Amino acid sequence: MTVGLKWIVSFCIITLVAVGGLFWSPIADFPNTGEFLGEENIVGADVAWILAAAGLVLLMTPGLSFFYGGMVGKKNVISTMLQSFIALGVISILWVVVGFSLSFGDSIGFTMNGEHYGIIGNPLSYPFFSRVGVLPHIYMASTIPFILFALFQMKFAVITPALITGSFAERVRFISYLLFMVLFSIFIYTPLCHMVWHPEGLLNKYFGVKDFAGGTVVHMSAGFAALAGALVVGNRKRPHHDPSNISYVLLGTGMLWFGWFGFNAGSALSANATAATAFGTTTIASACAMMTWIFFDRINKRKVSALGACIGAVVGLVAITPGCGFVSISESLFIGFISAIVSNMMLNWKALKKIDDTLDVFACHGVGGIMGMILTAIFAHGENASLLHGGLEVFAHHMAALLLVSIFTFFGSLLLYKITNRIITLRVSEESEDLGLDISQHEESLC
What Pfam family is a match, any one (predicted)? Predict the structure, then answer.
């Protein structure tokens, strides 16, 4: 059997990464420059909660694989599930080598009016997790070990490219997807993560963007990348199919909802009142979105379906993510309600239907993230924190940031798809698409 050059090159890369870490760590153990606190600052309750939250967020990626896998046709279940699951391997390694440094390393950016604004982190700040140890970081996580913060954030980086896969399911080559996933994580996810969540980040420090748990960083970036992917890869030969296993979708939704408590409440980075608020707003927004979705479907003469209930619940989870720690329970009800209606309308919009976004990733995650960002800018509590609390300038900055993020993630992803396609063809052959990706890409099947 002939092994393609691309697979040999991939194996050589993972070999260099595995061996390279042995040589880097000893020589890169830079002295503490004052950004770390002593072990006495560690709070045991916070450590216990973030350990649990990190595990919950990890569970979301297998949950997503069931959620997506149940929606596709029977010939593409395994390939679709693997595209989500493989992110646990690829992005975890990438995060250790350079991803965490690019996301949370020392800011590289520009200075304006005496203030520094970061675009991306220095890749030499924490390569191979150098200096990422048990001491808390003074700015980013002051009551938990820095390594726990890094691993918690890793789970967010893992699930983001996995979310994109639903847009080009049933027609993309596996090796091409692996390459795109790496490029997306380095050139889209890490700078966006740095700009929003690093203390010196441009969107955080200058625009004042409030993104408690990833509505902008995770869901908007994945949504616009999904839209770009559907456009570049093109429509399937047979775009209509029956979902293979609705019970998989129900199981995946339950795993996602369960894991989302770690996603949102864990983003408080502490076992405190904010975490409790985020826990409550998360489940209430999702519950309201689920019920709104099925009622709205029925009003529009569509049957009440398990698939619709699951999609509605996930839309609510997406929409509440950026504001879950900033809004009240009653406001989360409205966020779930209005986001479900807007997302449902977008999903059934005829113009968008012409684009073969297989599992409607943009209509759910992209639009849900957009709605979450807008509604957070309207409802977030605190003096001058949002439009309803005297923060007209904050709201205007959020809308400007929304436009900036949309352009960056869509056109940046579009370029990365084009580059990937030049290196390794993205789309499978017509014969492989007819046969199904389970067999043509992996020589496995459900039967």
Answer: Ammonium_transp
Q: Specify the pTM.
A: 0.94
Those residues whose C-beta lies under 8 Å from the C-beta of residue 207, and which sit 6 or more positions away, are: 397, 398, 400, 401
SS3 at position 36: strand
429: DSSP letter: P
Q: Name which residue leads in pLDDT, 130 or 240.
A: 130
Distances, alpha carbon 146 to alpha carbons 39, 158, 223, 441, in Å = 11, 19, 30, 39
Cα→Cα distances 132→62, 100, 141, 262, 269, Å: 27, 10, 12, 22, 17
Residues 157, 160, 162, 165, CA torsion sign: negative
Which residue(s) pair with 107 in the sheet? Answer: 121
User: Would you give the end-to-end CA distance of the chain in angstroms?
Assistant: 25
Residues contacting residue 417 through CB under 8 Å, at least 6 positions apart: 180, 228, 229, 232, 233, 426
- Report d(CA 201, CA 138) in Å as an integer: 16
The residue among 285, 54, 267, 252 whose CA lies nearest residue 166 is: 252
Q: Domains (ranges, CATH) in the chain?
A: 45-431 (1.10.3430.10)
User: Measured between alpha carbons, how far is 365 from 68 in angstroms, rounded to an integer?
Assistant: 13
Q: What is the pLDDT of residue 27?
A: 47
Q: Is 186 exposed, middle or buried (0-12, 13-18, 19+ CB in 10 A)?
A: middle
pLDDT of residue 89: 95
**Could you tell me if 416 and 422 are in contact, meaning their C-beta atoms sit under 8 angstroms apart?**
no
Interatomic CA distance for residues 256 and 343, integer angstroms: 18
Strand segments (E) across 45-186: 107-112, 115-121
